[in-house]
Amino acid sequence: MQIQNGKTYLLKLLIKLSSLFVFNSCLSTTATIEHLFPEEKMQREARLELLVEKTYFDFHKLGKECKDEPGILNFYCKLQRVVSVSQLADLLGVSIFKEGPHTRSRLILNHTREFGHYNLEFPVKLREYLIPAKKKPSFRAITQPVYDKFIKVTARSYFSVYQKLDSNPDFFDKESKRYETLVEEKRLEPFYLDRFIFFMHPDYTDSQDVEEAAKFTIRKNDENVSGEVTREAVGFWLRRKIDGTNLEFLLGLIDLLKIYDSEFYEIRTNLDAK
After folding, report:
1. Interval 59-81: pLDDT, tens
2. How far apart are CA 203 and CA 199, in angstroms?
3. What's the predicted TM-score (pTM) here?
């Protein structure tokens, strides 16, 4: 089967986008998606599918002012140039958050006493629509360079951090409950997560007492995960453990790795390769 090249695929995609009047200029207006288009499910899904594919192609051009470093916060910086929080919720047909400081129009990322609790349906929808390559092998071949350059380090890091947290369920539960309590009591310090910067290092310990210290499964190359990304990832997974969406986000991440990074995924999940 002949695989179309990126330029051909993008040209056809732009034609589809034009036929549905889905342009970035439309998405940047103050009008809501409901005012621009009828809300039939199939048409909304078609717009979302095309928007996601176009975003993959344009990812290298998004948010030039954003940091070109690994991490979900940098992804958000770029993606908000494509679609707002409220527009994404409209396209997905579900609310993104069930509680927290975020508004319908923007995320409050530096709140000192609260964090956003995701609606469980949100990561389910993301898993369904955010990886077009699950249904289109040709799209995977075309966008593999995008994954390799912009997504791979973050995806690998977040998966590796989750694996280590999950290798000690008691520690994972304890730290999640501690984090939740600190938030509820408004005692969470701004630099609280700095204590996890060295979490992926094989010698990491939460106690100097050998008998009391938490034990983890250590895998090859764990120490290569950036300390800053580790800090961010631990915070993300603790919050997802609290709001109950950790498994759904994990399943979406696994889908991404299996499609774009299968060798890494197989090595990381091979118990003999520790």
Report:
1. 988 988 888 788 888 888 888 88
2. 9
3. 0.84
